[in-house]
Amino acid sequence: MGLTDFLVRAAARRPSVLLVTMPGGTPVRLAAERELRCRGWAEASTPAGADLLLVAGPDCPALRSGPDRLWDDMSRPRVRLRAETAEAVAPVLDEGRARLGETERGPYGAVDPRGHGGPPMAGPGEDRDGLTLDRLHLSLGPFLADWPAGLVVRVVLQGDVIRRARLGEPYETGPADPFWSRPWIRASAGEPVPVAEAARRRAAAHLDSLGRLSAVAGWPAEAVAARRLRDDLLEGAPADAVLPRTMRLARRVGRSRSLYRLTWGIGPLTAADAHAAGVSGPAARAGGDVPARYRQWLSDTLDDMRRLDDTTTLLDPVAEESPRGRWDTQRPPSAALAGLLPRLLEGTELAAARLVVASLDPDPDEPAVRRQEVARG
Amino acid sequence: MNGFTAALSLLALALLVVAGVHGAARALRVSHEPLAAQPFGSGHEPVEHAVSRFHMRWYTVTMLFLAFDMEMVFMYPWTLVISVMGPTAVIEMFVFLGVLLSGVLYAWREGALRWA
Amino acid sequence: MVDAGKWWTLPVAPALLLGFAVLAVAGKTALDDRGAGRSVTPVGVLRPLLAVPRALVAQPRRLPASDRLLWRLGVVTVPVAAVLSTLVIPFGNHVVADLSVGVVWFNAMEVLTWAGLWLAGWGPNAAFSLVGGYRFLAQGLAYELPLMFALISAATGAQSLRVTDIAGAQHGLWYAVWMPFAFAVHLTGVLAFSFLGPFAYPAGRDIADGVLGETSGVDRLLLRAGRWLWLAAGAAMAVPLFLGGGAGPGLPAWAWSLVKTVLVLGLLVWVLRRLPALRADRYVELAWVVLLPAAIVQVLVPALVDLGP
């Protein structure tokens, strides 16, 4: 029928995209986020609100069922896309839009391949305040918007309070290549890496984390600002182009009284506790709550931006911290950060838990390095 | 049009538009067969029904709210008679509000306004 | 002076409301485009309207053991209540119904969103939606009472609950001028019952869009439209309550109403981007310990003026 075709084509002009990042897919995710922002396409949080499913990054057999499940939950018109490299993102999105606009009417099978017994009801258990309430078992990650791609935290919820949290089992991935730590890995292997390159990567990593934290804190405007700066940095923008904007961002976010009042006291981590847990890097140096950590990121970012022109000094991978802490192939810094999560999440509300995770922002691509090395050794 | 007619007509109009949009969707959608989906679970399937005994840890605030909500029932008509009743109306209302506010302060001191 | 009950106001009031809502969406999109470094074009800022064709063609979606009746009832309540609130909002010299309890009517319609959003969160039988629905109740406990006292402040100033009386009682000195706190609290309340911007907590991205997360098709369209309709209704209500309604020099009354509503709407849309989400677990304390007592003191000001000579 003509009208439906016309409406399908109209709606496909600006599709909303459910971006699913596979482990190791950070560069593809960055390209996709940049592309979606430039095109003004919405980023969906759930299958219900999405037209396109974009699976970004290398294939990961252990996690393949996740995108399949999200795809099964998307109603038509829908198109599933896959981009394994950053360069593939733009053409794949174009293709997706074109195919979305060609969706035809038709009886689509409504049979749910997963069957329909319906899950059981939640069972009761004692909650943190001594009441008996239903316990809901829920998984945060691996595929959640503004969440470290691939990280899995299994939680027991009572209301919106996390009663218990534990990290999901690690899964096998392909060749690990943590994007944010690449300069340190190369320098550790003996390659000469200019410190300017490392500083650029680290500043971009902090801005990426900050964008995620802002999004989780319900401040999308500042998330966009941080991500624009991140993308400009990664494209090689000179220091005098990004530094003034970063200083304005630091003023708006770092000195925001409202953000401070909304996040103080959440996820406390003293410097001593951090060191005991093997955490180095900004989280340990901040030695405090969520605001202490985002302010640390901002000041570290500003410091790094002042070193973007230093092309003579070479990166010393031991003296210079990688974005999430001192680089150690055997014990990558994100492993220690992720290890802190169960303890910090128990007893918090979902909103606070998301802030804690975003303010530590472990990079699940890093622990994959360790497993790979262990497997090799 | 009196008030009731107007209100009911406006409601009917709004519902008519809602029904119209639903009707248009019924006629135009790409498929009539509903998709059997699962609620979003970050890539996992839910293991339980989500509707459960939910811990509203802010229930003490609802008690406070109820007290003030009842007070509002008095306050609406009160606004109409202030100059007729004179200073006594204002004094009585604000003494009452003061009593309620002292209750809020007590609840605040007891930590009823914090639950996270 | 104010004309009430003309039959043609029935379709015009909701149409105007929709127009203001579309304007607000376009304004928000323009600001977002500028912030993201995209070019701002008149056609581009209207692209959120593509949600309409998208909703119309979407295949329906069923969740296991979802409460479809209550879910849909909740979703429909939000935009319908916003439309019903326009019953008492005068625009220029016209109003659909000049109820003697207009302020109470507006308040009652706005409170309907509590039920609507909670049902919209409960209906889909999904964990994140349920959390979102409860979040709105907690948020309601924080914003509602200061908002009620802000409405009462304006009513007390005019000693009437009739919205046109309140607009007429301002005699060139707007209530926004000598009751600025009530005006600010009203605007905060408008953002809160529209659950937009800093009050988007029930539909937060941290819980995968909460109450919006499982809605699709027409239901999603209605719920999202409801937010902007409420923003527009709240802005339109601020004009007679605090900005003297259609009164003003030179221009006809409808033009003044239009200008004032657009300005209030612009201010609200600008604020949307300026603050992070005000989570109820932190905001409730501020609302009850600071805003509520201050709002009560604000009511005392017009009450004392009423007693004056």
Provide a descriptive summary of the structure in words:
Chain A has 377 residues and is α/β, with parallel strands linked by helices. Chain A folds into 3 domains: 100 residues, 3-Layer(aba) Sandwich (Rossmann fold); 45 residues, no CATH class; 198 residues, Cytochrome-c3 Hydrogenase, chain B (Orthogonal Bundle). Chain A contains 15 helices and 7 strands. Chain A has a 4-stranded antiparallel sheet with strand order 4-5-6-7. In chain A, strands 1-2-3 form a 3-stranded parallel sheet, with helices on both faces. The radius of gyration of chain A is 22 Å and the shape is globular. The mean pLDDT of chain A is 89. Chain B has 116 residues and is mainly alpha-helical. Chain B has 2 domains: 29 residues; 60 residues. The mean pLDDT of chain B is 90. In chain C, α2 packs antiparallel against α9, α4 packs antiparallel against α5 and α9 packs across α10. The model of chain C has no long low-confidence stretch (mean pLDDT 94). Chain C is built from 11 helices and 3 strands. Chain C is globular, with a radius of gyration of 19 Å. The longest helix of chain C is centred in the middle third of the chain and has 32 residues. Chain C is an all-alpha fold and 309 residues long. Chain C has one domain. Classes of the chains: A alpha/beta (377), B mainly alpha (116), C mainly alpha (309).
Termini of chain C, distance in Å? 27 Å
Radius of gyration of chain C: 19 Å
Query: Widest sheet of chain C: strand order?
Result: 1-3
User: Biggest interface between protein chains, with counts per chain?
Assistant: B-C, 68 and 76 residues
The shape of chain C is globular
Strand content of chain B: under 5%
InterPro entries (chain A): NiFe-Hase_large
Region (Disordered) (chain A): 103-124
Protein name (chain A): Asparagine synthase
Organism (chain A): Streptomyces camponoticapitis
